[in-house]
Structures are given as structure tokens and as C-alpha cells.
Amino acid sequence: MSRSPEPPSDPKSLIAAGYQARRENRLSEAKTAFTQAVHHYRDTDPENPQLAEALRGLGQIERDLGDIPAALQHHREAADLYRTLQQPLAVAHTIRHIADIQRENGDLTPAAAAHYDEALLIYRDHPETKPLDMANTLRGYALFKAATAHPEAAIASWHEARTFYEQAATQTGLDMQPAFDEIDSQLARLSARESSQE
After folding, report:
1. Which domains does the chain have, with CATH numbers?
2. In the 8-state DSSP scheme, what is residue 26?
3. How far is CA 116 from CA 21, 32, 34, 108, 109, in A?
4. What is the pLDDT of residue 66?
5. According to the model, what pLDDT value does residue 198 have?
6. pLDDT at 195 over 50
7. What is the pTM of this model?
8. CB-CB contact of 121 with 83 (8 Å)
9. Residue 6 gets which letter from DSSP?
């Protein structure tokens, strides 16, 4: 019987091991690795950006495991630390995940929308924003607007998202066809809804 490899002891390696375990769907191992990294940084270096990274990873695992309150708590703590460290792109990435979690779990309040608004504001203002980050944020925003009966805003966001997915495809060489298929499907659904209400 093969034995699992010994877990790493240094916190950066724990974070890397956590992400690797998540990719391989070993969620319990991933949670353990991220939790150990969080404890290490909290005890030794609580303003290290790696603490925020470990918290964000732990939040992703809790989301995978269905513990939504814990997922939100870890992401919010990570976002607060990134703000303290003045890392706006990391703030935007993290609060976009908060908004996605809230939307996926039926929280369609203005407070939830504010996370999308802030993330988009940061991304639009920052010269180093990656097209894929912008596209993914617009995707969540479009879904949010559709769910809150703002079809015109949703349609505009889907069209803008397509532009950024096209840029991302050119820049990275990644296959964005699933994103384009989703956009076409969502736009068709929104157009049909609009037509039925005329």
C-alpha cells in the first residue's frame, strides 16, 4: 500500500501543497495544509501577504466543502489584509470571489452587489489588470444583474465580458469557447425574456 507523502513543514510549501491537493480533489488534505499555513503566519508574521493567500485558499476549500459562512469569513479576512497591505488587485480578486459566493447562495442584496461594483472599479482603474480577471468579474456581475431583474445591465455586461474573454484568449492561448457558449446562451435567454414582456 502506497503512503501519502509527508506534508511540507514550511508555510509557503504548505500553500502550494494545498492548491495541488485541491486540483486533485483531495479536499481534506488541502484544508489541512491551508489551515497549518494560516496558523503559522498568524503566530509569526500576521501582516505577511502569504497569510492572505493561505486564507483565500482555505476559503476556496470551505466553499468546495459547502461551509459557506466559513468560506466568506476567510475571504473577508484575506480582503482586509490585502487592503492593509495596499494590494488592490488582490483585493479585487478576493472580493469578486465573495460576491460570487454570495450570489451562488442566493444573497442578492445591495451589499453583495457592492463587491462586484468595487472589484470592477479597481480593475478598470489598474493598468496591470488581466483581461481574464475582468471577464470573470463581468460574468458574475451579469449573472447578478439578471437575477435581480436588471436585464439591460446584464446584457451589456455579457457583451463586455465577451470582449475581455477574446483578449484573454489572444493573450494566453487558452480555449475560451465554453465562456463564449455561456455568453451566447445567457444572451439568448435574456433576449427571450425581454421579448415575452413586450
Report:
1. 10-86 (1.25.40.10), 109-198 (1.20.58)
2. -
3. 29, 30, 26, 11, 12
4. 96
5. 57
6. yes
7. 0.90
8. no
9. P
